[in-house]
Structures are given as C-alpha cells and as structure tokens.
Amino acid sequence: MTQTLTLRRPDDWHLHLRDGAMLEAVLPSTAAHFARAIIMPNLVPPVVTHKQALLYRDRILSALPSGANFTPLMTLYLTEDTDPSDVAEAHASGLVHAVKLYPAGATTNSASGVSNFDKVRPVLEKMAETGMPLCVHGEVTDENIDIFDREAVFIERVLEPIRRATPGLRVVMEHITTKDAVDYASAQDGSLGATITTHHLVINRNHILAGGIKPHYYCLPVAKREEHRLALRAAATSGSARFFLGTDSAPHTDANKLLPCGCAGCFTAPNTLSILAQVFEQEGALDKLEGFTSLHGPSFYKLPANDETITLFKSGATYPAHIDTAEGPVTVFDPGFALDWAVR
Ligand code: DOR
Ligand code: ZN
Fold this sequence. Notes:
With 344 residues, the protein is α/β, with parallel strands linked by helices. Helix content is 33%, strand content 17%. Helix 3 (84-92) runs parallel beside helix 4.
C-alpha cells in the first residue's frame, strides 16, 4: 500500500522569484506546492520602497498560472537611505511583511545594502515599534574573515549588537548554515526566528569541492562542514518553533552559474518538498515536517496557517533536470539520491 502524508499547505519564508521572463518560468514551481512565500527584494534595481514592492507584487500576480492559489508576501530591501515612514506605511498596508538586510557586498545584488549600521537605526527602531520583522543575511563582508567563518562572526559582531541596541526588534536569521547559528537561535526568545534551506540539509562543503567543482551546489552562505549540516538537520527536525522553512530557491541560468565567476544560488523550488519529506523520514521525524513547512513560519509572522492541505505519496518522485526560460535553462537542484515522496 502506498504510504501518504498529508500536511497543511506549506509556505516558503525565503524565496527568489526574479522578474520578467525568469519570474514567468520559475513562479509555477513554487505556486504548485506553496500557498505563500516571502519574496526577496534583490532585483536589479532593488525593491526599496513601498511603491516598488506593490508594483513588483502586481507583476508576480500577473505571472501566476491561471487557477493558481498563491500569495506573495512582499519585502523591502533596506538601504542607508530607507525612510522609516515609508516602511511603516508598507507594513500597515498588510502586503509588505518584512524588511531585508543585506550587508553591502555579501551576496547577489547586495551592492545597495548596508555598510554603516548606525544609518539604519531609525528604520530599525520604527520596525521594533510596529513589530515588522527584519530578515537578515547573516554574513560579514570583511575580506579578512574566512568565508566559512562569516556567519559565526556576523552573529557576534553585527547581529547581537543590533538586537541589543534595538529592544523588541523581531529578527529572522535567514538561511542559517552553522551549528553556531543553531545554538544562538535556540537560546533566544520568540522575537527571533531562523529559516533553514532545503539544500543546506542535504549538502556539506565536500559536495561543492571534492572530486571536481560543482557550481550548482554553490550558494551563499556557502555550505559548511558536515557537523554543521547535522546541526541544521537536528534543528529542522526538532519540532522547535524557532526554525522554519525558507528555501532560498535562487534561480540563475546555467550560463550564469558555469562561469569563471559564477553566481551563487540553488534552484530547489520544483523538488523541495520531496527532498524535505525524505530528510525528515531519514531523521525519523516525519511527524515534525508539518511544523517546519507549514506552522512555525505563520506563527512567527503572525499569520494564520493555511487551511488547505497537500498530500505526498511514497511512490517515487521525478523532477526535471532543468527548466527552460527565455534566458536559457536553469538547473534544478540534484540532492544526489532518488526521491521517494511525490506531491500530487
Ligand atoms: O545563494 C544565494 N543566492 N544566496 C543569496 O544570498 C542570494 C541568492 C540570489 O539572489 O541568487
Ligand atoms: Zn536568498
């Protein structure tokens, strides 16, 4: 008899949809499985103002396949010139759910991010007052810090001082990749949440670098040692409401990945749920999957969980090796094992 697993419809609390032809090509993969997603604002140019976020939201809604039931939860890209009253207005609209902090230079399209954290203090104070969450890309950009240490150093040098200086600020540590981040998040109160990607539960740094370089496994923050992957798996499957799914599905064309200086990002939207079911089953924690994909995120963002459900069948899953876009093919993340659970 085929085993089945029924979950409340999941949400993705960290997603890159891009714009234009890429948006059209990648959005159906997410909308097929997820009810809502926190949409990253690192377009070129970035989505900085309330007005820009609403225009981007309209473009996403227009790109939805007919009959799709998907709500984009918009975010604003924090710059040193961001106006606190624009942020408050965006939040009050009910359509913009978070502000994203990119340290300048940390990752894809982060050049307009923050270098001087004092300059964004008034915005952070306004957010603490209104309860709007700050989503944080937690890596220092100091060239002297080894790339594998940048997350742990960020917690100590940037995150903890910001939180201490701004009591009440609600923070999401995005796409955590280290035991250090798991330990830090676990020790905080409910004003802090942490998202974990699908790919960081599956790969460690050997997958990227051993036996030949694998650009499709390169993302930021970069995958770390095995001990860190195991800490992430333990956190995700623990049942703790502190941790929830943010896939960071980040499509780039193969042409942009396979370069002497290739882009960071794993495109996991098409097979994320199948991979997660397998990871949770391997950890003996299938009963914790719904919390991670469908309950903890809404609770942090103060939104109701979805009423609809999806069902996974243990009947073997297939997925395309790549999806075609008008800009060229985008390779789908290969977890390195056959997938048992299919969403139908
Ligand atoms: O791997 C990543 N890709 N990490 C990020 O922080 C940004 C993202 C992207 O936009 O491609
Ligand atoms: Zn991201």
